[in-house]
Amino acid sequence: MAEFAQQIVSGLASGAIYASLALALVLIYRSTDVINFAQGEMATFTTYTAWSLMHHGMSYWPAFALTLAIAFAGGVAVERVVIRPVERRPELVIVIVTIGLLLTINATIGWIWGADVKAFDSPFPNNTWDVHSVTISVQDVGTLGVCLLTVFLLWGFFRFTTVGLAMRAVAINPNASRLLAVRVGWMLALGWGLAAVLGAVAGMMAAPTVFLDPSMMLVILIYAFAAAVLGGIDSPAGAVVGGLSLGVVINLLSRYVNFVGTELRLPTALAVLLVVLIIRPQGLFGHKVVRRV
Amino acid sequence: MPLLELSGVEARYGPIKALHDVTLTLDDGEVVALLGANGAGKTTTLRAISGTVRRSGNVSFGGRSLGRRSPESIAKLGIAHVPEGRGLFPELTVWENLRMGAYVRGERKTIRAEAPRVLGYFPWLEERKTQQAGTLSGGEQQMLALARALVSRPRLLMLDEPSLGLAPTIVAEIFRIVRELNTEDGLSVLVVEQNAKIALESSARAYVLEVGRVAVEGASAELERHEGVRKSYLGY
Asked: CA-CA distance, A196 to A199, in Å (whole number)?
């Protein structure tokens, strides 16, 4: 029983990372109508940036904060420079641009930092708490806490600020927003900035366990896809619930179902993706797409 | 000097020309109706004013030429355009929709200052504040769209077919409110309508568009007696 609880907590920790990245995907999907395939690489890039800052003597939390600021600026810049010119093109064009972005960022990372695996510090001590004979890793609790706090702050931003409201309005109806004097282009760019911040948080939280290498977010991005689809690709709450439950389910399966083990974790996520798409394409919280002809 | 002046305005959607030569004026404090059949260019005329369609010719507002201004900056001059289909945000609440109306003038202070006045015209919105706008009935949505436009205290209100798909009593209610806004607050209104009868009853002057041109213009009371207008648009 104690071990079961332990597995749930560690599942929640990795689930929180998936949730953050899934939420980044959903944010962009809602405003730009495409899946940003480069989301994982953007996160990797910012995680390397954090590594460089710490490597040059900055301590963890200032480097963390500065990285978030850099990620935000980077996300805005990517939207303005790369996405803006193809904004009105068919969705497939934008998707291909994001795949090109994925390759470009990946190559740039290798070019700047090299391909060898680096260790990444964790801000949390490497010890455990004993709660009613359940051993909980402080690392897991810290990861869960940071991711959930980020999501919570973002929720507050969308819920309580004027700009957050305008961004939601733009995602629903850009033309009507324009008539109300909202600068739609900038709102989209802001959305990319915030998505990049979420990715940076996910990257920095994942790096201590998966280690830093140019393709570290590849697998996490697939989990994030599965989580976003499970929750409903247009639902922010769904992305969070989807991420957390996917983390827990996969962790439990790989621990208790011998057949799955560690080798079949990723295929399990893909199976979830497939099953959701077949049985309930709109996910747990998403909206059904109705095509009127 | 008129508040709004269009002269020789042309507009096109890609290769298709929707407006050929529209010239019209609207004085401060006036209600003007824009009538015409489907495809005559009524909606496009409003879009040409709010800058949401590519146009040439001159549009000036308050003596200032709108030139190539963006829709955002035209909205900032005080033109509130309630577009075809109302342009509400169905997933946002009634209150959030109203807040978006205040965005143009600084959301927080404007919504605080203007909400009481606007809710005075639509008291039922008060209890429906937290409801999603998409769950309102068609008539309620039209009134919310009108309320949202009023929150910005516009100098010119442009309504695109407010009667579309609504029951006659609700249409009458909407036009009653528009007339009241005009007589009490001096609000200037440019209204596009298929329902020529109520539009002529509620306006001082009217223009009839035919294939992207002004075909007939004059005082609304006179147009009601005009034989061509009567036959084509009033049906008797």
From this structure: 5
Alpha helix positions (H), chain A? 2-32, 39-55, 60-78, 91-113, 138-160, 162-172, 174-179, 184-210, 216-231, 236-256, 265-279
For the A2-279 domain, the top CATH level (class) is mainly alpha
pLDDT tens digits along B104-117: 999 899 999 999 99
The pLDDT assigned to A259 comes to 78
d(CA B126, CA B116): 10
Which residues are within 8 A (CB) of A111 and not within 5 positions of it... i.e. 6 or more apart?
none
A177 near B CB under 8 A: yes
Give the pLDDT of residue A291: 54
Residues 6+ apart with CB under 8 A from A204: A46, A47, A50, A64, A67, A120
Residues of A in contact with B92 (CB under 8 A): 165, 168-169, 172
Mean pLDDT per 10-residue segment, chain A (293 residues):
85 95 94 91 97 94 96 97 91 93 95 92 87 86 94 94 95 94 95 96 94 92 93 90 94 84 82 86 76 51
Contact state of A182 with B71 under an 8 Å Cβ cutoff? no
Token code pair at residue A194 = 């915030």
Q: What is the mean pLDDT of residues B210-233?
A: 87
* Residue B59 token pair: 């549009």
Nearest Cα to B31, choosing from B213, B169, B221, B171? Answer: B221
Q: Which residue in the set A162, A175, A183 is minimally distant from B107, CB to CB?
A: A162
Whether A198 contacts A21, CB under 8 Å = yes
**Beta pairing class for B205-210 and B31-36:** parallel
Residue in A132, B217, A131, B36 with CA at minimum distance from that of residue A140: A131
A162 touching chain B per CB within 8 A: yes
